[in-house]
Specification:
The chain is an alpha+beta fold. 42% of the residues lie in helices and 17% in strands. It is built from five helices and four strands; from the N terminus they run H-H-E-H-E-H-E-E-H.
Length: 135
């Protein structure tokens, strides 16, 4: 119940999934993930359908609730990866290649305005743009 409240879904706790908005469905899926007490958590674009502020808030909540787990997060958002990840990789090119970008050691979630995070974001965006040739 506390988690559902933190995800601002308490008023819709008994609603059918088909009646929820896309963002509410995304938060419900996140709740299912966060409820599990698993040593490894796989997350594929868990914040993609959310507005910017809700996205940041749920990134913070997830980072705090998953501190003791190993998390594999797939995202197309470089800032999200840099806020939440410790080992940042870029999957790009054809055939697909995995490139290690950086390793961050400070506490997550990281501040979006931190100069080193912004520098990493610029570098990562440049690498992503270069690997997206042909689009």
């Amino acid at each position: 119940r506390h988690l559902v409240e933190q995800l601002e879904l308490l008023g819709s706790a008994y609603d059918l999934p088909a009646t929820l908005s896309g963002g509410m469905r995304q938060r419900a899926a996140l709740a299912r993930t966060l409820m599990e007490d698993r040593p490894v958590v796989l997350m594929d674009e868990p914040f993609s359908a959310l507005d910017a502020i809700t996205r940041l808030q749920l990134q913070d909540l997830s980072a705090n609730l998953l501190k003791k787990q190993t998390v594999l997060l797939v995202t197309h958002d470089p800032l999200e990866a840099l806020r939440l990840g410790n080992h940042i990789y870029l999957l790009a090119n054809r055939p697909a290649q995995l490139e290690k970008i950086t390793e961050l050691t400070n506490q997550t979630p990281r501040n979006i305005g931190e100069p080193s995070i912004l520098a990493h974001q610029a570098d990562l965006l440049t690498r992503m743009k270069t690997s997206a040739k042909g689009f």
